[in-house]
Design brief:
720 residues, alpha/beta, Helix Hairpins, seven-stranded mixed sheet, two-stranded antiparallel ribbon, 9 strands, elongated
């Protein structure tokens, strides 16, 4: 038998839990692409339930179907053009009247509709008592209560979807109760509807009539197309719509679109008055009282800064001992493999590859995984609890002062994890000016790739108050981004920023499962990167640091020096070991300088000398363009190639302490914070903004990094 199939579109407001419901229905059976011709993400998935294959399309989150944003246009065009069997509108049950506005517009479209009252447990805890049966009767639409993150109500939702989808759509739509716009407006809507049916199309004629009265440009374009429209009669229909609109505005004193919106909200309010009650005790919500503090005009920013500082301090306090343990395990592993290696192959290239290349290079990067996990865990807690939306609300005031869009905060927040998805997240910003400004400053957000660098340098040179130094690097990046965002908005991208409206989701206690999933997903991306891209780069860098080998004549000189030290009867055994160690260090230095990477480092060293960097640091900075973490791996290779691995090997931090000052350490962090983004960021910026802007981004950030680092080092070296 042929499997039955239903196509279901998920609609809903942002923060309504739509993605959670989508994941609960489809699980891992989903894929992501883009809608044709636009950069808005398209998510699709499927499930088979009671013998019916249900294909689900997750529409972009919107507050309405009025064509003000690309997400609204995409959502309504999908419903009109693809005619899904069922549209499921995910409603935040704790914010009912605001969320039902979208539902009224879907009802007006005349499609089979199911309402999923999500977060119904939260609505009850906030004192709402919803008579869903009564409200369903008032709207003429089935209602299912769900709790998406717990999976409650999903089976009932699927049952309802199948029941609605298998019934004739005409009978389903006939039961729906659409908003009534009153005795003054309804006759004009019918009049225009009849004209559209006569001259153009009978399909959704009332919807088109209302949209024309709201002066909806997308509707005008649609009716003007030869395919499915009526271009020959369009001017006649528009003239009639304009006369009606002027009449409505004349008798109401408001724009027609405002009048229609008010009547829809009145329809919703009337239904909710009948079906929703609220307990007196809940009038002053706990979340409202908390928001009075967290979003306060004067306290909001300081609280945000304090929470960020505490997050970094917690990350370092709990994570540093774990990093040290992994670093020790890495040295133990290297020493054990060295001891097990056959005696006649102690100088083999394969041994150097395994110990100096893989274990030291990749292992040094992976040893910082605990810090990254803790940082992602803290961010996930703030996101899932609802605080990050408040932070966006607080930062929005600052954003507008510097010329950035309020929506820019979300990509910037994502940028603390990885710049690549952060650049893609700017797709939600409608204005191209705002979007390009955000993209150009996003690499200044300290991504997770910089965490190993900060951890290495701070651990080596700033052992006390590590959380402060970590927070300081993040703060410096944010401040530089603010300055250059303002510069770009008054020079390259002049114009006003679009207004930004964000709903504040209710506070929730994050579930342990949700936190662990979010933490692991982001950490696993870092580990995969270390196991693939960083692994390949580190192997290449190891090869460059290994060949060409030091000529036999020069190696003979070092052997001769060792023989002379061993033969000297005037010194003690302790002094012999110390001098042999000095000779080994000089030989190691000579081998590195003679290698390909040493020659490259010597060649580029003059460029970085004003920044306080020697040829070793300069060599490690160049491959960081591929991936920032490679800097740590390369420094590990530089200070390990040619050395004898053992369990007592000196940690990389101590080697850096012996060779450089804290000022140089800070200069390294500053340069790698500001300088050119990684190659993946370059690629996605070129795709999203254009190749010219990607090249501009790399150029201005690298020049800026060199100038700032030079100033800091030169001024600092004179003051210290």
């Amino acid at each position: 038998m042929e499997e039955k199939k239903l196509v279901v579109a998920l609609a809903g407001n942002p923060n309504s839990g739509k993605t959670t419901i989508f994941n609960a229905i489809t699980g891992a059976r989903q894929h992501v692409g883009n809608y044709p011709g636009v950069t808005v993400e398209k998510k699709e998935g499927y499930t088979t339930y009671k013998g019916v294959r249900i294909e689900v399309v997750d529409l972009p989150g919107t507050y309405s179907l009025t064509a003000y944003s690309i997400e609204e246009v995409i959502a309504r065009n999908f419903i009109i053009d693809n005619s899904p069997d069922v549209v499921v509108d995910i409603i935040d049950a704790s914010n009912l009247e605001r969320n039902l506005y979208l539902a009224t517009q879907i009802i007006e479209l005349g499609v089979p509709l199911v309402l999923a009252f999500n977060m119904s447990d939260l609505a009850k805890s906030r004192g709402f008592k919803i008579d869903t049966e009564k409200l369903s009767g008032l709207l003429g639409v089935p209602i299912v209560e769900t709790v998406g993150h717990k999976g409650e109500g999903i089976d009932k939702l699927l049952d309802t979807i199948i029941a609605v989808g298998q019934e004739a759509s005409t009978s389903v739509v006939a039961r729906q109760h659409r908003p009534n716009y009153g005795s003054e407006i309804e006759p004009h809507i019918r009049e225009l509807t009849e004209q559209i049916e006569r001259l153009c199309t009978k399909d959704r004629a009332r919807w088109f009539a209302i949209k024309l009265l709201e002066n909806d440009n997308e509707t005008i374009k649609r009716l003007g197309k030869p395919d499915g429209g009526c271009p020959e009669h369009l001017q006649e229909i528009l003239a009639h719509a304009n006369r009606i609109r002027e009449h409505i505005e004349g008798i109401t004193g408001d724009a027609a679109e405002i009048v229609f919106a008010e009547r829809r909200y009145g329809f919703i309010s009337g239904a909710c008055t009948e079906a929703v009650t609220r307990t007196a005790e809940s009038r002053h919500e706990m979340s409202d009282r908390i928001d009075k503090v967290l979003t306060n005009r004067y306290l909001g920013l300081p609280i945000f800064a304090i929470l960020m500082y505490l997050m970094f301090q917690m990350t370092f306090t709990l994570g540093s001992p774990l990093v040290d343990q992994l670093d020790t395990l890495k040295d133990i592993l290297a020493g054990a493999i060295s001891d097990l290696w056959p005696a006649h192959m102690q100088e083999s290239t394969l041994k150097s590859l395994v110990i100096d290349g893989i274990i030291e290079g990749v292992g040094t990067v992976l040893s910082f995984v605990p810090l990254i996990m803790l940082l992602f865990l803290a961010i996930a807690f703030l996101e899932d609890s609802g605080y990050m939306a408040r932070a966006a609300f607080v930062i929005d005031r600052l954003m507008h002062k510097i010329g950035l869009h309020g929506k820019s905060f979300i990509p910037m927040l994502i940028g603390f994890g990885c710049t690549v998805p952060a650049v893609m997240a700017t797709r939600t910003i409608e204005s191209r000016r705002d979007r390009l400004t955000t993209i150009l400053v996003l690499p200044l957000m300290s991504c997770s790739a910089r965490v190993p660098i900060y951890t290495l340098i701070i651990g080596a040179f700033f052992p006390t108050h590590q959380g402060f130094w970590f927070f300081l690097m993040y703060l410096i990046g944010i401040l530089i981004a603010i300055i250059f965002a303002k510069v770009f908005r008054v020079s390259l991208f002049k114009g006003e920023s679009a207004p930004f409206v964000m709903e504040l989701p209710p506070y929730r206690l994050p579930t342990a499962r949700g936190l662990l999933i979010h933490m692991w997903e982001r950490t696993w991306m870092f580990i995969k990167k270390a196991g693939t891209i960083i692994f390949m780069i580190v192997i290449i860098l190891w090869a460059l640091a290994t060949w060409p080998k030091l000529p036999a004549r020069q190696k003979g000189i070092f052997e001769q020096q060792r023989s002379q030290v061993r033969a000297d009867k005037r010194i003690t055994p302790k002094q012999i070991n110390e001098r042999l160690a000095e000779i080994a260090a000089k030989e190691h230095e000579a081998e590195l300088e003679y290698s390909a990477i040493g020659r490259i480092g010597k060649f580029i060293a003059p460029v970085f000398k004003p920044c306080g960097f020697d040829w070793k640091i300069s060599t490690a900075i160049i491959p960081s363009f591929a991936a920032k973490e490679v800097f740590v791996g390369q420094m590990g290779i530089i200070y390990s190639v040619g050395e004898e691995a053992s369990e007592e090997s000196e940690p990389l931090r101590e080697k850096l302490q012996k060779n450089y000052s804290p000022l140089v350490g800070f200069s390294i962090m500053l340069f790698l914070l500001v300088s050119l983004p990684c190659v993946a960021t370059f690629a996605v910026t070129a795709r999203e903004a254009g190749l010219c802007w990607a090249i501009f981004q790399v150029t201005y950030l690298t020049i800026l990094a060199w100038i700032l680092t030079t100033i800091v080092y030169q001024v600092g070296s004179r003051l210290i």
